[in-house]
Write a structure and sequence with these properties.
This is ABC transporter permease subunit. Belongs to the binding-protein-dependent transport system permease family. One of its GO terms (molecular function) is dipeptide transmembrane transporter activity. This protein is an all-alpha fold. The protein has a single domain, classed as MetI-like (MetI-like fold). It is 66% helix and 0% strand. The chain contains twelve helices and no strands. Helix 6 (145-156) crosses helix 7 (160-186). The longest helix has 36 residues, at 89-124.
Length: 301
């Protein structure tokens, strides 16, 4: 008597949250390209001492305002030409990534930490404290952000530290509004009521119980603020209120180049292109994160 062997078909293992996130993000080709460009800029900034062909502060006498090497009058030793003082433009653009990305990252981090803290507290104590926080927040948001940044930077004085503080203050209101709106919804959930009945402390309720459930929109907001921070740092540097020459920062390089815009437009093109690519890559990455963090779009094709 032979027994038939029945082959049990194993049920397919459902994809994990990370797999769904990665698959959704990968489907957005623009987001993948933006992330690659952003990673390339970060790596370039970290490896600037080894990638830059020259010292960004070195003056090459007699080599002032050279065009790129592919144009007439260019020099192959200076691929993107030189600035008004004879410094290598490519080296300064590479080192400029350090200043611009560092300013944007620090300002975004400070704005996010302060904005999330104020937004959570405004949602948790909505009567007096919450109304006061949102009143100040609405006043700040009703003022043009770039103009407000210029005013604050002019008051604090030109320096990289003051630029970071200025941009953090300007970028904080969107975090406050978004955190408060998201937390107000989470405060009505059963899990929050249960945690409160079980005796969880205020800090635990705010930062361990509620905050993790608010992180998805905050991460997307952080990418958008990061992009805005780089643009505002460039604008502040362009007007002379940010990082001061001879330090190589993209906005400061643009500010120096404006007086030579007619005689040598290349001085403005390269740092302007760097700012454009950085902001665009961050925005594309943020779009991909928004899609990947949306539960309705997490479907593996």
């Amino acid at each position: 008597m032979t027994s038939s062997v029945q082959t049990a078909t194993a049920a397919p293992v459902p994809p994990s949250q990370w797999q769904l996130f990665a698959a959704t993000f990968y489907r957005n080709k623009g987001a993948v390209l933006g992330l690659l460009v952003l990673l390339a800029m970060v790596i370039t900034a970290l490896l600037a001492p080894w990638l830059a062909p020259h010292d960004p502060y070195q003056l090459f006498t007699g080599k002032e305002q050279l065009p790129p090497f592919f144009l007439e009058g260019g020099d192959r030793a200076f691929w993107l030409g030189t600035d008004d003082a004879g410094r290598d433009t490519l080296s300064r653009v590479i080192y400029g990534a350090r200043y611009s990305l560092f300013i944007g990252l620090c300002a975004t981090f400070i704005a996010m930490v302060a904005g999330v803290s104020l937004g959570l507290s405004a949602a948790f104590w909505p009567k007096v404290w919450g109304k006061g926080v949102m009143l100040v927040n609405d006043i700040l948001m009703s003022y043009p952000s770039l103009l407000l940044a210029i005013i604050i930077a002019a008051i604090l004085g030109p320096s990289m530290t003051n630029t970071i503080i200025t941009i953090a203050l300007v970028c904080m209101p969107p975090f406050i509004r978004l955190t408060r709106a998201t937390a107000m919804v989470e405060l009505q959930r059963d899990y929050f009521t249960a945690s409160r009945i079980m005796g969880a402390g205020t800090l635990r309720l705010l930062f361990i119980t509620i905050l993790p459930n608010c992180m998805a929109p905050l991460i997307v907001q952080a990418t958008m603020v990061f992009s805005s921070a780089i643009l505002e740092a460039g604008a502040i540097g362009f007007l002379g209120f940010g990082v001061q020459p001879p330090d190589a920062e993209w906005g400061a390089m643009l500010g120096t180049a404006r007086q030579y815009i007619q005689s040598n437009v290349w001085l403005a093109i390269w740092p302007g292109l760097a700012i454009f690519l950085a902001a665009l890559s961050i925005n594309l990455t943020g779009d991909g994160l928004r899609d990947a963090l949306d539960p309705k779009l997490k479907q593996v094709s």
